[in-house]
Design brief:
Elements lengths: L10 E3 L7 E6 L5 H6 L11 H7 L6 E6 L6 H6 L30 E5 L2 E5 L9 H4 L6 E7 L55 H23 L21 H6 L11 H7 L5 H20 L6 H35 L1 H10 L11 H8 L14 H5 L9 H26 L4 H15 L5 H34 L6 H20 L7 H42 L8 H18 L8 H32 L1
Parallel strand pairs: 2-6
Antiparallel strand pairs: 1-2, 3-6, 4-5
Helix pairs in contact: 5-8, 7-9, 8-9, 9-13, 10-14, 13-14, 13-15, 14-15, 15-16, 15-17, 16-17, 17-18, 17-19, 18-19
Length: 620
């Protein structure tokens, strides 16, 4: 309806009232006839409180449509003899009491300030030129609540709520023994109630939404704080390793016997018996509990911030345990194929599998530097959460260390058996290398003991190998008429390699068998030099034989020069073996060869003199 015009004396507006409300008060000077013209369509205006009580009428609030005070009605005001408002529009900045205070409505309205208070109006732009604006018609009307001085402002009736069944979400059941018996209504597939929004622009609707949103936020924060604690008050049929294990159950663990009511953040960092599955369940619960907190605008609340750090720690440790458990399973599978791998190493057909190697390097990357992440500096939380490791005493670390030690013992014993059976020392060395590379320590107790036990066997094997190599060299010398220096050199190098390998595998350097093998190698090295000198001597004798054969073919004095060239060749061969092969200059055989070369040079000088004598005789 529309309020009819009436003299200004009959109506007066009260002092500024809450936004969206106009209190209409009857003037005591108004006549009854004038007041009847002001009677709304709902009920007559009471003259006094006594009359209201005796009339039996029940006063109710009403709403009327009035032209809005926004700039969109400026054309209508000018057309009807009024003045344009030309009021600026602005969006007030709502500053909450804290950064985590929820926003109470999706969009804030614009407030048009005027002399008579403020009216709410949506944000408007410049008036477009349309037929409606050209006619001067009202373009915007507002619903204004009208109330009486004796009557409170209308409050929307609360909506009936049906109690929902108890929540089955982790962290909400029984609320840790709370007496409030809180219940949560889940909406759609999110699993939590949607954030409360204001149904209208009235103060009552906004206050109601504010209260409901605050209650939702407090409930969600309460649930977030109870993660890992709610199972404390109720018996659980799940295993004790469930992610919802209580703080008290962790305290009962001997590793936490001196800690009481420890927060989940420190429980996770210091726990030495948790698994990836447990942490994944805890991670899921924390992530689900964070969703309603973000929905209700509490993401920067202190509880949410601390819980987000806890969630980051849980995720990091779950990833570390996942890597450790995967490496443990891969190591077990590889060790189960140890007989096949042993045959491959013995025949040198395949290298050792990577799953068995460098287990200590892997553990250094997973265990926290310093041993205990609880004692680490957390001032730079981003750097801490991306670099901390699992505690040094964690059960998965002990399992990996134990299985590595067992594998080291097995491979050490396997190498010992193969060495005792006379297997090639190179194959035994490959087995010992695998045993040492499992934990990366050559000083492992089992390896040291194995090397000590293998010392005698390896030294004996080296001596037998040296004797066999010496016999092979003697056979080569017997079946060849010429000296064999290369055979002696290769034999000496092979024996030295056997000795070096035996010492590297743990054989004592002063072992009697190794001393005998070294003597054989030294003898072959000397034999190489003797054979080199013999080669020079053979070359000198061959040069003499060739020279004599050429001289026998000549009818008279042999030509001058070939004998000197043969002597030069003998000297060159002697210099090569001395400088390049280490034959001493005073070697008897080498001296003999050089003497033969000198005789060839002397013979060439004799021939030169004889040839000159013949020329002199022929000239006479």
């Amino acid at each position: 309806g529309v309020v009819p015009r009436s003299p200004p004396s009959l109506l007066r507006r009260r002092a500024p009232s809450p936004l969206g409300h106009i209190h209409i008060v009857a003037s005591p000077l108004a006549t009854s006839a004038s007041q009847k013209g002001l009677i709304p369509s709902v009920a007559p205006t009471p003259r006094s409180v006594a009359q209201e009580e005796g009339s039996g009428l029940q006063l109710r609030a009403g709403q009327i449509l009035l032209p809005s005070r926004g700039i969109e009605n400026d054309v209508a005001r000018a057309r009807n003899g009024g003045a344009r408002t030309n009021l600026p529009t602005f969006v007030p900045r709502v500053v909450g009491r804290s950064a985590s205070e929820p926003v109470l409505c999706k969009t804030m309205p614009l407030v048009i300030k005027g002399a008579g208070g403020g009216l709410l109006s949506p944000q408007l732009g410049v008036n477009p030129k349309t037929p409606r604006t050209q006619r001067g018609a009202v373009r915007k009307a507002s619903r204004v609540t009208m109330s009486y001085p004796e009557m409170p402002a209308p409050v929307p009736p609360p909506r009936p709520r049906t109690p929902s069944p108890p929540s089955s979400r982790p962290g909400t059941s029984n609320m840790g023994g709370s007496r409030s018996m809180k219940r949560v209504s889940f909406s759609d597939e999110k699993g939590y109630e949607k954030a409360a929004m204001a149904d209208g622009r009235s103060d009552q609707a906004i206050r109601h939404a504010c209260l409901k949103r605050s209650m939702q936020l407090m409930d969600s924060l309460y649930d977030l704080r109870r993660i890992g604690v709610d199972k404390e008050a109720e018996p659980s049929a799940e295993p004790a390793t469930d992610a919802g294990k209580t703080e008290s159950s962790k305290v009962e663990n001997p590793k936490n016997a001196d800690v009481v009511d420890e927060p989940l953040f420190y429980q996770t960092l210091g726990d030495v018996a948790d698994t990836e599955a447990e942490l994944r369940r805890t991670e899921k619960m924390l992530a689900q509990a964070h969703q309603p907190v973000h929905e209700y605008g509490g993401s920067r609340h202190a509880t949410a911030v601390v819980s987000a750090r806890t969630l980051a720690v849980v995720r990091r440790k779950a990833e570390l345990l996942q890597a450790c458990e995967a490496r443990f399973a891969a190591f077990e599978d590889a060790q189960a194929r140890r007989d096949e791998i042993l045959l491959q190493l013995k025949n040198d057909t395949a290298p050792a599998p990577e799953e068995l190697l460098r287990l200590n390097v892997f553990l250094r990357g997973q265990v926290h530097k310093g041993g205990n992440p609880l004692e680490a500096n957390k001032s730079d939380f981003g750097a801490f959460v991306s670099s901390f490791g699992i505690p040094e005493g964690h059960k998965i670390v002990k399992k990996l260390t134990d299985i590595g030690s067992q594998a080291t013992d097995w491979w050490s014993q396997a190498a010992l058996r193969e060495a005792a059976a006379g297997t090639d020392t190179a194959a035994v060395s490959r087995m010992l290398d695998l045993a040492a590379d499992i934990l990366g320590s050559k000083d492992h107790v089992a390896i040291v003991q194995c090397r000590e036990m293998l010392g005698n066997i390896l030294a004996g094997n080296a001596l037998r190998s040296a004797q066999n190599i010496q016999a092979k060299d003697a056979f080569n010398v017997e079946r060849n008429t010429k000296p064999q220096p290369e055979s002696a050199r290769k034999a000496a190098e092979a024996i030295n390699l056997e000795i070096k390998t035996a010492v590297a595998m743990g054989a004592p350097t002063k072992h009697e068998s190794l001393q005998q093998a070294k003597a054989i190698a030294t003898k072959l090295e000397a034999a190489e030099k003797d054979r080199l000198a013999e080669c020079v001597l053979v070359f000198a004798n061959e040069a003499v034989a060739k020279d004599e054969a050429k001289a026998a073919k000549c009818d008279g004095v042999p030509p001058v020069g070939p004998a000197s060239e043969a002597a030069d060749a003998v000297e060159r061969e002697a210099n090569i073996v001395v400088k390049d092969r280490g034959v001493p200059e005073n070697h008897p055989t080498l001296k003999e060869a050089l003497a033969i070369g000198k005789s060839l040079r002397d013979k060439d000088g004799e021939r030169k003199r004889m040839l000159a004598r013949e020329k002199r005789l022929a000239g006479k």
